[in-house]
Amino acid sequence: MQCLVLLFLPLMSQGYPLYGSEELGIRRLEAARLAHEGAIRGSRRPAGELLSRDQVDLRLLAYPELDLPTIDAKFSAQISRLLGKEAEHYSLSLLDLSDPEHPRYAEHNGAARRNPGSVGKIIAALGFFQALADAYPDDPAQRRAILRDTRVIADGFIVYDHHKVRLWNPRTRRLKRRPLQLGDEASLWEYLDWMLSASSNAAAAMVMQQAMLLRRFGRDYPLSPEAVERFFRETPRKALGELFIATFHEPVTRNGLDLERLRQGSFFTRAGKRKVPGTTSHASTREMLRLLLRMEQGRLVDLFSSRELKRLLYMTERRIRYASAPALRDAAVYFKSGSLYSCKPEPGFKCRKYMGNRKNLMNSVAIVESPADQPQLYYMATLTSNVLRENSAVAHQTLATRIHRLLQRNNPAKR
After folding, report:
1. Cα separation, 101 vs 65, whole angstroms
2. Could you say which of 39, 164, 239, 310 is the most buried, measured as most Cβ atoms within 10 Å of its Cβ?
């Protein structure tokens, strides 16, 4: 027995999410674990991605009254200088919580509104978790069962999306990466994971569809695929629009956030937009930061929802854009990003990914705990930009390093 216990201890000490597939039913996590161990082809995870499940937790439970402090002029001047000559095309909000008793807040154009792109999928998750909490307010175990055991089949709402998701077959040990297709079946946990870790618009459409159903039917959820199809076919568009507002707009204000500064106005797929009327989407870096702050306090819906959303933001498929900065390799990073770019004819200009000359939006939200196992630096950064013709993914990666180095200089005792 003692030998068995000793053999089991290393497994328990291994990182989350690498050993989370059994509990959550998110199958791709098994592939990530096997790749990290060298059992199948794939990459090892950096040090910052190896926290245990218990370590991925909320850090501001002891500070429930904390709101954004008064803007620190000196700190704000420092971050404005980091933006250089293109500063007017950036918005940035930064909250340094390395000493939570004395937080410092800086912002540059923090009230400006831009389309949040895929960062708006956090609002989709908020709507889902709010509906789940309303149905089962005092029963976290039942919420977990709904997330793990409800099977969702991709239907016409997914059309069309190019984002690829990871589909793992544990029997054959084969991993496929492709866009979701009609008929793909997975748990709600997997759809939430695909929406946030791979930024799949198709997965977001299914999450939003299911959130609306959960909001409408409560404890009579889930519905059969036939009942789902019938509900969206027979319900008048006006009623569907009102249900969308109740599902995704109302939770923003219920959780103390400003809908005029943070709104996901519609589905992420064309088919979803055709079926359910919506409006425009917008976000400011200041209000996105307030969302992260409330999550860390366990005040985004409730403790269960805040904690599970933070864990979903940690379980990223791979670090990209802001989170891919080498300076953050040893840090735990909880992030989401989104981009919207488009091009127009211009002599001598070639349209490239994230380098639009008509529009080139890039958005990033991140919580950084550095180093991951014993964090000394702890901060939140929300960032939007619209710098034309510049590779915005690289620009955000570079800025992440500059911000991290600035905070190291500002907190010499925390290095």
Report:
1. 12
2. 310
Nearest to 56 by CA among 289, 294, 310: 310
- Helix extents (H) in 38-115: 73-83
What whole-number distance in Å separates Cα of residue 319 and Cα of residue 329? 9
- pLDDT value at 98 more than 70: yes
Q: 134 — phi, psi (to 5°)?
A: -65, -35
Instruction: Identify the sign of the CA torsion 310, 311, 312, 318.
Output: positive
* C-alpha angle 213-218-219 in degrees, rounded to nearest 5: 125
Q: How far apart are CA 361 and CA 351, in angstroms?
A: 14
Does 8 score more than 80 pLDDT? no
pLDDT by residue (tens digit) across 178-218? 999 999 999 999 999 999 999 999 999 999 999 999 999 99
Q: What angle do CA 366, 370, 373 make, to 5 degrees?
A: 120
Instruction: Please provide the size of the chain in residues.
Output: 415
User: Distance between CA atoms of 53 and 138, rounded to whole angstroms?
Assistant: 22
Single-letter amino acid code for the residue at 87:
A
Each as own residue / partner, the long-range contacts of residues 131-136 (CB below 8 Å, 24 or more positions apart, any chain) are 131/211, 131/214, 131/215, 131/247, 132/214, 132/305, 133/301, 133/302, 133/304, 133/305, 134/215, 134/218, 135/214, 135/218, 135/219, 135/221, 136/219
261-318 pLDDT, tens digit per residue, is 999 999 999 999 999 999 999 999 999 999 999 999 999 999 999 999 999 999 888 8
Distance CA 142, CA 139 (A): 5
pLDDT digits (tens, 9 = 90+) for 16-29: 566 666 677 789 98
User: Please, what is the end-to-end C-alpha distance for the chain in angstroms?
Assistant: 43
Residue 369: C-alpha distances to residues 176, 295, 375, 392 (Å): 32, 15, 5, 24
Would you give the DSSP letter of residue 55? T
- State the Cα–Cα distance between residues 213 and 244, nearest whole angstrom: 10
Candidates 411, 414, 390; CA nearest to 83 is 390
Q: What is the DSSP string of 277-299?
A: -----EEEHHHHHHHHHHHHTT-
How big is the CA angle at 317 (ends 30 and 302), to the nearest 5 degrees? 90
pLDDT value of position 20: 64
pLDDT band at 412 (very low <50, low <70, confident <90, very high): confident
Amino acid at 11: L
Q: Among all chains, which residue has been given the structure tokens 């064309």?
A: 270
